[in-house]
Structures
1.
Amino acid sequence: MQVLTCCLLLVAIGINKNQKIAGIPLEQFSAEQSEVPVHDWTTKTGDRVISTQYIARDIWGYGGNIPLYIYLKNNTIDRIEVQSNAESPEFLASVVDKGLLAAWNGLTPEEAIARPVDAITGATLSSNAIIASVEKAMQYAAGQVTTDRTVHWEWKNVRFWIVLVIVLSGIFIPLFYKNNYFRMGQLLLNVIVLGFWSGNFISLSLLVNYLSNGVNVWMSVIPLLLLVAAFLLPLLGKSNHYCLWLCPLGSCQELIGKIIPYKAKLTPDMIRNLSDFRNGLWLVIMMVMWFGVGFELLDYELFSAFMFRQAAVPLIIVALLFALLSGFIQHPYCRFVCPTGSLIKFSQQTSNKLN
């Protein structure tokens, strides 16, 4: 019941943010028949424009589909423009600043299909989605049968398999085997691989985007496994499994805490007041977005600091302060701030009362 309550709350926030449910615009629920959007037209100056909104609708980044307008002049790509989307602004800004959209300029559709283009480090999901969308649109422009890359491209990526092994290790091995050395190794890999290298973690932004924009299962295997650990394993009696065994931010705090042996003593009243602060913060964030404002708060959870090339400087500074604080107080962010952790905890409760 608690999990359903959380889902309904996040669905309401997603509706306010993106006007969609599971990727379906609200207006389509009242329409008798949805229309296929125009995806190929000619401008007054004679340029051909191809929109990927329909052609590449099954290709997703972090927050959902990333529609593109691809302008062709004399059958060569003149420019590519990103249209309205639900991606994190910092990730897309990194993609644009590093010149990904210009990588195909001057190429014919056939040349664009054949040209290998690398994803942008730190914005992998967003940049891979753009690369796959351009490829599919150019296959359409060249009159080719589109490939099945949208389903299988991620499975050919070595990074995907490394991350998958680490996630599966964190999910299943602790269920049957308990060892301090294994735990330290798992925590370290969580920080390095899930955090800094691949940026795989659960956040309010991820949850709202999935419920609002829907989920491409083939391209979201890793996040979905993390969601299983966070919301389904507790139903089998493994409460807080994600927070204890997979969260890169929680892992970082625990590792730093082991380096510094001294710990500040918090009184029961201090712990209770700080816990109440976390619950209150989460409720305020949820209610503000439920009323249709403050969606930018989704991008300011400390998890984003792992993508330090795109994260805001104040966010990185706060993350470093909490990292230092974790040497003297056990898991300070997890215990007394984390909104996503509050949501996970709420979903595990057997009553409607927050602890």
2.
Amino acid sequence: MSFTALRLIDWIWTVRGSLPIAPGLSVDEAAARLDPLFHDPGTTRQRDGDVVTFHKVNPLSQDKLAVFDRGRLQIAAGLTGGTLRYELVGRALLFCFLLPVFFLGVSAIVDGSKISGRVFAGIFTVLYVAGRWLEPRLVAGLFTRALAGGAVPSRNDRPGVAGNGAG
């Protein structure tokens, strides 16, 4: 599949967006404010100049970015304030998109399971539509709070919770 064709369908599992960064906030300060988001167990992160990339392996459900397996954030400085551009990829969104087709296929093949197959297809359709509507808003809010200096503790920073040392 060519890059152009893939780009036409990757909206199914990719969340893209951009947010303004307050004037006077440097690239380093913005990256430092976003950094606690990537301290959860199973998350690796790398910063190269104005770009932060992360990968997640078996994220905990309490991880605020658990839906996304990997992502790229670019912090661009400007005279009147900068911009955070992000691209986050989540296999969970892809699975919720594909599972209705699977359950409808199974219900068509196996006698007696038509209703249950349709029910499961409906559940995953609702999950996908809700996720595609909700996730971009949740991520934008999370990044906005972090950039504003709001407390966004990682799992390791919470009292009484021990991490596994990854990250």
